[in-house]
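Late entry, evening session. Most of the bench is empty. Finally got around to the prediction I had been postponing all week. Sequence below, unchanged from the version circulated by S.P.
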Amino acid sequence: MKVAPYHSIDPTDPDVYHDHDNCPSGQQIPARNKRSGTNEYRRCQHCVQMG
């Protein structure tokens, strides 16, 4: 399901944003590292494939 864009602030995570709540890589982001918005990153490849 599509959701508002979010990204990780962890410097070891890829510089991508997610916009699906069931994205496998987005689900691995701990709540403490999750932030709203795209941060001008490119869209995650998993999210692109989900539509």
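Two things to note before I forget:
Residues 11 and 33 are 10 Å apart (CA to CA).
The chain has a mean pLDDT of 97.
Will write this up properly tomorrow.
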